[in-house]
Design goal:
heterodimer; A: 196 residues; mainly beta; Immunoglobulin-like; eleven-stranded mixed beta sheet; 1 helix; 10% helix; globular; B: 440 residues; alpha+beta; 2 domains; 11% strand; elongated
Amino acid sequence: MRHAAALALLIALAAPGAARADGGQVQPALAEADVVGHTHEAGHDHDAGEPDGDDHADDDHVAAAPFGLVALHPWTRATAAREALVFVELENGAAGPVTLTGARSPAATSAGIVAFRLVDGVAAYAPIASLPLDPGAEITLAPFGLAIRLEGLSAPLTRGARLPVTLLTDAGALDFVAEVEAADARAHSHAGHSHD
Amino acid sequence: MTALGDLWAALPAAAQDALLLAALLSPAPVLAALLLRGLSVGGLTGALLWRFRRTNLLFAALMALSVGLGAAVIAQERALRQGAARAADAFDVIVAAPGDRLRLMLAAVYLDPADAPLLRGEALARLQADSQIDLLAPLAFGDSHAGAPVVGSTAAFVAHLSGPLAEGRVFAAEDEAVAGARAPVAVGYSFTPAHGHGPLAETDAHDGVSLRVVGRMAPTGTPWDKAIVTPVEAVWNTHGLANGHAPGVDRIGPPFDPDYFPGTPAFVIHAQELWRAYAVQARHDRGDMMAFFPGAELARLNALVGDVRQAMSLMATLTQALVAAGVMAGLAALARLFGRRFALLRALGAPRRFVLAAMWSYAVALVGAGCLAGLGVGWLSARLLSALVEARTDLALAPALGWPELHLVAGFFSLTCLLALLPGLAAYRRDVPSDLRETA
């Protein structure tokens, strides 16, 4: 009897240890101070009666700068950490090359462009100062690739919230609003939709 | 709370790991301070350890094995992951005809034979025109010699892969070759490559072709150590194709002439700066060819199998917990045997806590010895496992016990220190008069 109790205690004690080993993060549902309020689902009706013609002209899935740079499907992951990676599809519709030089966000103390690399077998995102986009080029900032890293977030990012980000380029700035997806998301929930 | 969190986040990783280790170990000294305060149980604990030395050795060995094997499996998994990733270091970007990236990565980085469609002159022209590429080298695989893959590429790629050669020089003519550090050919040796790999390779397909080994690369810790690298022109020539240069041009290596370019299954690209590698990748990852980072593919794969890793650490923890429970059950049985002696001590005036403290110290001494020996067993088993894996994969592994294993062992030690109270309590609760009566 005593042994059974000992075993039960062990297993109960071992379980949190195992959770710690996997690096899992508990996501407390906290308020969204600097993050724009949750309005996305309310204004989202593109599945109703228009299965093919997704029209995102009046929402935040597309943002275009007057100088020709277009941002599509910006997204990030819900997190309680102080830093986050923002991903987005970019198209350079300008006649000449556009060079990405940095980023900023009112929700973060600093921001910049980073690129994924394995350093001695360990995954890491290293900052890059600039990234040229040829005219007509499309580039996808995505996990295990390029990203905008926000540091010093003023509040946790909760799923469904929206995060304003500004991409800086040598031709000017491009504002867009990133959708906060699930903490384990691998892509924007609307990725793959047509925006023509 | 946030301030504490920030402070924690600002600490270097090693400091976080060390603090976590200290926190995991902390229950033992706290318990010891509470139990042993004002008592001197060393003599009795030592006597118990000596009196039951065979059983004690068995218990300690059992724990050492379970702790050691758990730590070794985790250490080995990490060593394999890092070794595999290091092998991809020399391959910034791989460009190939559209298809299976993973397949192409296995072929280029790990030299796992694969049939792949060829990139032609048009692709070559675009890549050669890209000023942001510092190294552009075709990788032409498909031939072998004595079990070693024979791969066509350029002298610059050999220098990029190996750095300074360990022996001889890099190839300077179409009929020369450079051996990998562990390739089964010596400098000065001449051979005819076989078409294909393994037992089905056609050894007579390239009759009349003879390549001479003129140098040997330094060890890279990758499957390329077993390869033989030849000028890509030799591979094309061997297969009766144009050699990448216009007739009358008598040299090897880049630039190649797109009009006389027979094709290659893959190019490896190196750019000095990270942003340039990304710019190049983005520029050439298009409909008719794919450009990708092998490192990113590996990391994506690692993320996918991360769940398996978690299951593995959970199983290691549970196995250790089971062994610890078994050992504690054994100690509780031993405590019964001591019952009469402890009763005698109590009758002579020893406080109850003395019995508890002595049993606890005895159990903790066994657990501590088991954990320390377990680290040794873990280190040895990780080396052994790595040697086996290295022999099978040609990857250089550097197995070492790291923080995760130390945390695992520390957590196990603290858990069992708590559990060690159970046999102590068993002795503590015994009824002195009845124990004494049994003695009489």
